[in-house]
User: What shape does this take?
Amino acid sequence: MTTITDIKPIDFDDDAAISKEINDFAEKYAYADVEHALEISPNGNMYSLTGTKYDVNSEIIGRDALKGSKSVHNHPVEPGKDKADSFSIKDLKFAAENNLGKQYIVSGKRRDAFEFSEYYSNSEIETAWHNAYMKVLEKHLENDTQVVFEQEEILREFKLKGFKYYENL
Assistant: This one.
């Protein structure tokens, strides 16, 4: 359900060029109806992908191209809203499984990123996610409040050595 729509060369060591491509992607797809991704690979290629309303599968470019890549993808925004939620557990597990570099997300006004500096298995990520989720629930029970963006709140509480979550870039 994912297609490669374009492949262009890029200097992976040119941080300014990469930043420009990520920003251009964010402007173009912030309010897109389906998920898109831009994979910037250390192999010198930049892959543009189009998926479905709920998923874009970057594995289509191959594991070798993914390893160490920097990427950005969008989460579609519901009509009348200004953003959708942040990264999912699936996004984190995918990054760990494929040894990805810094990952960015855009969703309406949302601009977040994360990165792992150490490898973690799916079960380690699932355990840390569950623990963070429990903290979020406890906080809301104590304060009698509602969860608005569940994944965003979980990521704020997500604890693994070498994991960094960046909000509002």
User: Anything to note?
Assistant: The domain at 3-117+162-166 is CATH 3.40.140 (Cytidine Deaminase; domain 2). The CA atoms of residues 74 and 106 lie 5 Å apart.
